[in-house]
Write a structure and sequence with these properties.
22% strand, 365 residues, alpha/beta, disordered N terminus, Dihydrodipicolinate Reductase, domain 2, 35% helix, 15 strands, 2 domains, Rossmann fold
Amino acid sequence: MKKLLFAPLLLLAAAFACAEEGPPPIRLAIIGLVHDHVGGMLPSLAGRKDVQLVGIVEPDPKLAASYAGRFHLDPKLFFPTLDALRATANVQAVATFTSTYDHRRVVEMCAPLGIDVMMEKPFAVSVDDARAMAAAAAKGGIQVIVNYETTWYRSTQGAHAFVDGQRGIGEIRKIVVHDGHQGPAAIGCSPAFLEWLTDPVKNGGGALMDFGCYGADLVTWLMEGQRPISVFAVTQQLQPAAYPKVDDEATIVVTYPRAQAILQASWNWPYGRKDMEIYGQSGAVLLPDRNTLVLRKGDAPDVTLPAPALSGPDSDALSYLAAVVRREIRPSGLSSVEVNLVATEILDAARESARTGRRVDLPQP
């Protein structure tokens, strides 16, 4: 009798233990090591229970060895191709740290395999590539996430809730976004990163693409997915010796039927910055940094608005990816293909405008 009672108790205890531990971690592969942002993800994977790194695909053995030594990684984690990795491990999701030009190749490779993809911003080097990736993802039934640092800012999420959710300053009239730093060479980006970041094909441009994408993504989100009616852009090479093939200074004016956005992307700021100003009918919301949100109305004193701490899937890129892979959520807002298709249209038009010196009108549905 005791034995009969004991077995169910063991099963019940095991069930409670599994419930406390949560679901098994998603099995993540990294593709590419030529994007320096991978140096931020690798340490953050250590000790996580929701995401498990099962392998790294990098065809350059010297680059792979460099990262293995730098982050004390087992050499057995590295593979020359995704096929070689998949022969040893089941892969559910990929985080790609290739050039922007290679995003399409990665998505079109992963889509038929049912592997979800997260990529570093921007989404694509061109509208053609963006649409091809959207089509491949839809056909393969996979989810695609575009990862921007600013997505995980408390101020970004708080501003959207106040401006779009609560309509706290009325209808938006103007958005000004500043993004950039002193330049990738000046801040010490790796040679592997610099090689493609300063290539007009692999990056699609220079500062216009590297930092203009943040603004294009943010304004599309704040304007609730609305496509602009026109784009006008001016680019310059203020450091031609350092960046002979691409622009290092860009200003993009994005026009909507009842609003404007000004995106200032630069590799010439005297300091690093990712800040934004949102002006509405009755006031302005200022985002001077990742945690601060300031409301200004008329001559009244500035008011600091709450910028709640992010939690759950919205707390960071890996938590978001895990929730997407488990189909607990779908990519939305700043991370979504839908918003990034419009953002890519803005960047494409800006590049064409800068080339021709003329405003580019976007076809309206």
